[in-house]
Amino acid sequence: MVSSIGVKALLLAALVAVPFITSSYTAYQLGLYILFGIVGQGIVLCWGKGGFLPMGQALFFGIGAYISGTVLKSDPSWGVVLLAVLLSVLVPGMIAGIIGVLVFGRKIGSGLYFSLITLALSLLGYQLANSQVWLTGGFNGMTGIKGLPGIDSFGSLYFFIIGALVFSTCFLAYLIRTPFGQNLEAVRENEERLQFLGVNTSRIKAAAFAISGGVAGLAGAFFAPHQGIVTPQVVGFILSAELVIWTGVGGRFGLAGPVIGAVLIGFLASGLRDYFSFWEVVVALVFVIIVLRLPGGIAGLAAAYAKKIGMSLDTFRSSPRDEQILSSPTNSQPRLEFKNVSLQIGPVVILDDLSFEIVDRGIHCLIGPNGAGKTSALNVLTGKLAHNSGKITWCGQPLEGMQPFRMSGLGIGRKLQVPSIFPELTIRQNIDIALWVNRLKFGNVLSMRPYRWHKALKDRLERAFPFLIDAEVLAGKLSVGQRQMLDFSMTVLAAPDLILLDEPCAGLSKAETETMISAIADLAKSSKATFIIVEHDMQVVELLSDHVLVMHQGRLLAQGSLEQIRANPEVRRVYAGGSK
Amino acid sequence: MEVFVTFLLNLIYISATLALIALGLAMVFGLLGVMNMAHGEFVMLGAYSVYVVQLAGQHFLWAIPVAIVICVMVGWLMEWLVVRHLYSRPFDTLLATWGVAILIRKGVEVIFTRDYKSVNQVMPGTIDLLGVSYPAYRLLLVALIIVLFVALFTWYQKSKAGLKIRAMVQGPELAAAVGIDTARLSRLTFIIGVSTAGLAGVLLAPLVRVEPYIGLDYLMSSFFILIVGGLGTLEGLLIGSTVIGGTDAIVSTVFDKTAGYMSVLLISILFLWLRPDGIFYRR
């Protein structure tokens, strides 16, 4: 994305000047390609930012075109035209939203399925447009569409199209900067982590898809008066595929990419198609090469070149953090109950009638030899694995079959064993996402205010881990130890009442382990949260634990203070290598 | 009674051909995790082989070796140039194979134009079966498909190569560590997968329209079958084919083709919603 205002203004001026310095026919062609580019900008939102690719975007473009075409046939007034444009945006947007909710609702990472479903919908749209003659004019298309009132389709309509481009660019650029946009990028980076933090990722994806559908519809609304005819090809899969190719070749990570791709390939095609029959084969080949070698496309190349000659295109915003947010009221008393929980996968018994209760605050360490079922116990607790029988309740609330993001609403937060962060986002952005958990509402998700939020706990964490201080460093560049610390900080900042840590010191050096231990101890003292820590390192257990639970072969073997555990002959036998 | 028998035979015929078409994608997507968007294009290449063979005045059966040679060559090239760099990156494979699909489609379009090609009927007669006369070629086709499935399934379960493939699917690193050449095996699986698609194209060519864009329909129906049936089992493939084929056939007869397509699509979305892993899902 080109960010400096000067470059943008220059580009806009050049676009406005096109009809005056070249022929009006060139401007007319350019207008069409820009409309396709606008649809591509919606694809950028889903594909480049959200990490899921809609492959049937022509469907929404076509619906918009058919709606505006139907209205424009009747020679309407400007008021009606505006209403039609609005409808052309809202109807496809809503359809896309419903599809998004349906497809994303149940399954994390259903990206491939989503792509094929959207492709199938575009095929369906093509069949419907062909068969519903009363509505669409069928195979021969909807004809007799007049231009916008008083606007020459071959002349001044071009400026309306530029207006639509400016609108969609500004709107989407703003959207990408909001907390919504940042969460969308986090979905692309690590959807599972975002769910464990407590974000309903399927809703974010559905919303992004709905917006991309609306943007496509907007372009469609101008396509109808521009062409004067709308045929079923406009909703079909061929155009859908071309839209993806233009976006991919132009560049999928920024809003300029698809416009560049559509305009460039459009003009090349109109020049070459008649002389060079293999033209479209070549375009497909270029697309494959870009997927394999050059994910950023032409815009990515241009940005790399600009950086090389010393132009800075990235402007980091750094809003001051001046709005204090308070931790949500914490449960005064934890009550976690495992009642006869069993888990068997294939012939392997992993949890065998596991029962225990945690009713005290403080740090509870879960220990046991390898394969005792410690991590599995956390997995069934957070719904990552479905147990076969038994009951798990948190403060009286049963946790069966709950999606991970709902756990966070109940006050349960989890850090996985392998550090899990959003690598292509900065440390500050990672922290922001954790701060926002359960606080982003419809009213503020599209405002910049959440960037100003601050929390006392954040200061405390930054004292423990100084590298965190609002750093504009990509989280992917951190060392393993630092990632663990960032991951831990995010889990804690999301403010759960029950914090589950799976080997928080795995992969840390001795010094880092000490830092981590003192940070955990400090937090446990100052907050009202309850910690359950799965740990192998007895040193860590010794320093941190208020209460120890020992698991062996899927059962609870013993519990009590560390001294009691050490004195327990059963535990000794297990750890000394004896069998049961 | 006769109507019922005809319907039943039609259902068997439709399910069998769909299962044959989906088989290759089930292998490539189910075993290798590669969502091969060019799957339908291999069916299309198979169908065009029949057209070319008949154009040259040769017997229909020659199309089988021709199609297999073409599919092996194109599949090998595709695996070597594109797919092998992208294993374990499912989203990029989807994109790249999508590009390859367009490339093949446009290539065929340039060579043969977009017109429909007619392929001569093979075995035009009918056979009396359970009181109804049914097209002989369709019955032969069903028999052939059953034989092919049994053979392939036995090979997968009993042969050494099948064992190696199963080992590779369950644990690629371990398989490589015990001396299985996983790169070669993946290529082999990919090539066999696309070749079955080509074979399906040959066998179906006399019954369908032949043009450069038919592949997309086959890709979509294969995909729907895999959604409904789930990945990794033969039962799933067969049930998926029956559900998808049956729904399409019934709804299309009662209403029209568009309604049939719409109902198949709705069933697939419903399955994604209710049973995201399909009917048969092996952990």
Task: Please give a structural write-up.
The complex is a heterodimer of chains A (580) and B (283). Chain A is an alpha/beta fold and 580 residues long. Chain A is 55% helix and 11% strand. Chain A has 2 domains: 18-236, no CATH class; 336-575, 3-Layer(aba) Sandwich (Rossmann fold). In chain A, β11 and β12 (555-560) form a beta hairpin. The model of chain A has no long low-confidence stretch (mean pLDDT 86). With 283 residues, chain B is mainly alpha-helical. Chain B has helices spanning 2-32, 39-55, 63-81, 90-112, 136-158, 160-170, 172-177, 182-204, 215-229, 234-254, 257-274; strands at residues 126-129, 132-135. The relative contact order of chain B is 0.19. The A-B interface holds A 51, 53, 55, 99, 102-103, 105-107, 110-113, 115-117, 119-121, 123-124, 127-128, 131, 237, 241, 244-245, 248, 277-278, 280-281, 284-285, 287-288, 291-292, 345-346 and B 35, 82, 85-86, 90-92, 94-96, 98-100, 102-103, 106-107, 109-110, 216-217, 220, 223-224, 227, 256-258, 261-262, 265, 268-269, 272-274, 276, 283.
Provide a short characterization of the protein structure.
The complex is a heterodimer of chains A (580) and B (283). By secondary structure, chain A is an alpha/beta fold.
Count the E strands of chain A: 12
Mean pLDDT of chain B: 87
Tally of discrete structural domains of chain B: 1
CATH-defined architecture of the largest domain in chain A: 3-Layer(aba) Sandwich
Q: Count of helical segments of chain A? A: 22
Tally of separate domains of chain A: 2
Q: H/E series of chain B, N to C?
A: HHHHEEHHHHHHH
Overall form of chain B: globular
Oligomer: heterodimer
Q: Give the largest interface pair and sizes.
A: A-B, 41 and 38 residues
- As a percent range, the share of strand residues of chain B is under 5%
Question: Would you tell me the structural class of the helices and strands of chain A?
Answer: alpha/beta
C-alpha-based Rg of chain B, rounded: 19 Å
Strand content of chain A: 5-15%
What portion of residues of chain A is helical?
55-70%
Task: Report the CATH C-level class of the largest domain in chain A.
Answer: Alpha Beta
What is the first-to-last residue Cα distance of chain A?
63 Å
pLDDT < 50 runs, ≥5 residues of chain B: none
Quickly give the structural class of chain B.
Answer: mainly alpha
Helix content of chain B: over 70%
